[in-house]
Amino acid sequence: MKFNLIDRIETISDDRIVAVKYVSLAEEYLADHFPTFPVLPGVLMLESLVQAAGWLLHRRSNFGKSIAVLKEARNVRYGTFVAPGNALRVEVEFQKASDDGAVFRAAGYVNDSQAVSARIEMSYFNLAEKQPELAGLDAKLIEHHRARWSVLKGS
């Protein structure tokens, strides 16, 4: 199942993105996590950092690749819970380019309390790099990313 865990991009430059994930009680996974104490699962907090880093990669390359995926997460730390009604403010900073992507420092906050932080490395590539017959799919994915981008940016 694909979760879109970025609801709005507040600011973005080539080196930094600030985005928001609004948590609603209507989100189905909260019924099981946990029934009497619903909170955003830690793995989804981490995924929100990854998705924000992906948007930063797309911006830095002008949507030059179709796939942005987590390669490695280090020093992941969790703090405060993210409950329905909260907004998780995600801040991701570019640290350095890698052979196939980039390394980022990322954190998520509820108000002024840190909910999650990590150092994440992302891979960024086109499917056609390994399977040339998938070039058409790369083009469709990039078109889809650009459409979502316009919604997230509000432009």
Structure description:
The structure is a single chain. The chain is of the alpha+beta class. It contains 2 helices and 6 strands, in the order ββαββββα. The chain has a 6-stranded antiparallel sheet, covered by helices on one side. The chain is globular.
Topology:
Layout: E1 8-12, E2 16-22, H1 42-61, E3 67-78, E4 87-98, E5 101-110, E6 113-125, H2 135-153
Summarize the structure.
This protein has helices at about 40-60, 135-155; strands spanning about 10, 15-20, 65-80, 85-100, 100-110, 115-125. It is α+β, with helices and mostly antiparallel strands. β4 (about 85-100) and β5 (about 100-110) form a beta hairpin.
Rg over C-alpha atoms, rounded to the nearest angstrom:
16 Å
Largest sheet: 6 strands, antiparallel
* SS content category: alpha+beta
Number of helices: 2
**Which segments are poorly predicted (pLDDT under 50) over 5 or more consecutive residues?**
none
- Outline type: globular
Work out the helicity level.
25-40%
How many strands in all?
A: 6
Distance between the termini: 27 Å
Strand order of the largest sheet: 1-2-4-5-6-3
Average predicted local confidence, pLDDT: 95
Beta strand %? 35-45%
H and E order: EEHEEEEH
